[in-house]
Amino acid sequence: MIAFMRIRPPGSDIRVDQIRDWLTAQLHFPLSRLEPASFDASFRRYFRVWRSDGTTRIVMDAPPDKEDTGPFLKVAQLLAGCGVHVPQVEAVDRQRGFVLLEDLGSVLYLARLRGGEDPEALYADALEALRRIQQQGLPAASLLPPYDRAALEREMALMPEWFCARHLGLALDAQERALLAGTFERLVQVALEQPVVFVHRDYHSRNLLLTARDNPGIVDFQDALAGPVTYDLVSLLKDCYIEWPRERVEGWVQAYRARLAAAGDAPGASDAQFLYWFDLMGLQRHVKVLGIFARLWWRDGKSGYLADLPRTLQYVTDAAARYPELAPFSDWLERRIRPAFPAANAHALSQAAAGGPAAPVPARGPAV
Questions:
Q1: Strands of 89-93's sheet, edge to edge?
Q2: Which of 181, 268, 264 is nearest to 233 (CA)?
Q3: Residue 290 CA from chain centroid, whole number
Q4: Which residue among 88, 155, 199, 208 is the one 20 to 30 A from 76 at the CA level?
Q5: Structural domain includes residue 44
Q6: The whole model's pTM is what?
Q7: What is the signed CA dihedral for 104, 110, 116, 122, rounded to 10 degrees?
Q8: How many distinct structural domains can be found in the chain?
Q9: Could you say which DSSP state residue 55 is in?
């Protein structure tokens, strides 16, 4: 999840000094300026560097003791082969964790969408790029690790641990844990029954950049897997950072399935089944994201995602309420989670404003 922002100059940062040395001494790059460009939820950082002729590049800084550049380089090559716009790799220092990349600019889809730009043209380009990834990328998908049961379950386990227990301070009883286990099992089943495609895993408005050529520019793809056909579609259309009316989302989903059908492959037996897959895949993703956003604050001290928790929780409650088979889970969300959330999130936001997370919140017993 990449977020672009202005950051204070890096000063005496030793890795910045190493980047300067790598560029000038080893690559003979005519460096005239270096500035922070972005950060993400991992240990990676990105710097924009100017050549003496005024053109720019991006340097990825991925400390090798914390980040492996291998998956990024592999997936970049695979995606380029699908005919989509990913940053071209110009130089690599695997030992020190530096990658010199094409600069795709800094105009995020999110900024344009929040600024009121009509989303139809932007999403048309994003959906066409996704179609290429899914259809032209089928051979490449076979080279990726599988988005299997173990991965799906591991992701959802973050919700009870980090969102329920740590963020909300709830102690779940055996009945509640059984309810979650049964719900998560159904979500795994629905994910695994879908056609398998190349999955970016974070295909959303903070990872799509508006580019003059081959829009959009696509970044943050290093965690790609081979998995369910609706996963990236959910990431885009049920975006954790911006929300659209349900009627509009359904129209986009139906149009996307028609786009796949026109290219010779219509997943699912009907539009209704595809929408069902989409909604339950979204539920799996957003259950995971509740845990991830909470963990980013409580474990890593990154408060920027707390403001996106309400939207993410709304996606979870909305999807659960749509299908009778999820009624017990939906009832539990309304009874246990939604009442506890506002005060807990406000507390976390106040702690963030004060400069750091509070001491661990004592677990509270089940409501009666």
A1: 2-4, 31-40, 45-51, 56-61, 98-102, 89-93
A2: 268
A3: 12
A4: 155
A5: no
A6: 0.91
A7: 60
A8: 1
A9: -
